[in-house]
Amino acid sequence: MKYATSSALTIAGTDPTGGAGIQADLKSFQEREVYGMSVVTSVVAQNTLGVQSIEHLSVSFIEKQLESVFNDIVPDVVKTGMIATPEMMEVVSHAIKSNHVPYVLDPVMVAKSGDHLMDKESRQTIREALVPLSTVITPNIPEAEELLEVSIQSTEDAEIAAKRIVEELGAQSAIVKGGHFAGDAIDILFDGKKIYKFPTERINTKHTHGTGCTYSAVIAAEIAKGKSIYESVAIAKQFITDAIRFSLEIGRGNGPTNHWGYRLQGVPENKTKEAN
Ligand SMILES: Nc1ncnc2c1ncn2[C@@H]1O[C@H](COP(=O)(O)OP(=O)(O)O)[C@@H](O)[C@H]1O
Ligand SMILES: Cc1ncc(COP(=O)(O)O)c(N)n1
């Protein structure tokens, strides 16, 4: 018996402790019942305390991995995370352009720990080679500030930024995430026509390692299934809120989110703990 399913490819760096990067993406695809595939760009020695060391794969080897996937399986969506150098961005751009797939761009620049995951000289290349290909781009506040070279201080600034990323940088739609603001966590989506706001209460926790990766991976999974950008973001927002609410006390630093958090609604108090 065969079973038909949608598929998603993540092109990103790794997290051996499983909370962020490719590992978080694959877990998120699996939770959303989408077949997950991965191309590694950089191997990152990191954990819940921070990044200890990074080794980049050669551009030619990243290209070989991309060929292995695309010569065999054309995914229903591509998601990118950490792509450190302009040369890596060029080969990824070429693969996406040649295969005409929906593309979710998480412009990963700096990890929560403050460690840099993208070279400074990549800023221009990401704008020119990747942003115009994106079906949706998902910057956090500092990333949106870097992309536009502006300061974002309020939800109104975030709305302007989302519009400018679409109208000036050429993304099809943009979500500026509110995780880095104080107060409610309000994400702003501009889909090329309209602004939508996705507000949730801010959960008071330090365990937010990998939130951006998980959120964009869920958006990608839903797009793979054929959902609209709006529906995909709505599902991802609910998913990430539950993943943060029931985040995991694993590790000695900023713990990972809980990919099955949404399944814990209604589970008795003694089985779950509010995030702390
Ligand atoms: N403490 C929090 N409480 C509720 N939602 C949050 C919190 N922190 C982040 N989020 C949400 O998690 C998602 C990822 O955002 P963010 O943490 O800003 O991304 P990144 O990991 O790229 O910095 C967004 O939907 C954001 O609103
Ligand atoms: C390989 C890799 N990619 C992305 C992140 C960002 O994680 P976060 O969502 O916590 O900022 C990370 N820490 N490592």
TrEMBL record:
Keywords: Kinase, Thiamine biosynthesis, Transferase. Residues 15-258 form the Pyridoxamine kinase/Phosphomethylpyrimidine kinase domain. Pfam families: Phos_pyr_kin. It catalyses: 4-amino-2-methyl-5-(phosphooxymethyl)pyrimidine + ATP = 4-amino-2-methyl-5-(diphosphooxymethyl)pyrimidine + ADP; 4-amino-5-hydroxymethyl-2-methylpyrimidine + ATP = 4-amino-2-methyl-5-(phosphooxymethyl)pyrimidine + ADP + H(+). Gene3D superfamilies: 3.40.1190.20. GO terms for molecular function: hydroxymethylpyrimidine kinase activity; phosphomethylpyrimidine kinase activity. Pathway: Cofactor biosynthesis; thiamine diphosphate biosynthesis; 4-amino-2-methyl-5-diphosphomethylpyrimidine from 5-amino-1-(5-phospho-D-ribosyl)imidazole: step 3/3; Cofactor biosynthesis; thiamine diphosphate biosynthesis; 4-amino-2-methyl-5-diphosphomethylpyrimidine from 5-amino-1-(5-phospho-D-ribosyl)imidazole: step 2/3. Belongs to the ThiD family. This is Hydroxymethylpyrimidine/phosphomethylpyrimidine kinase. It comes from Virgibacillus alimentarius.
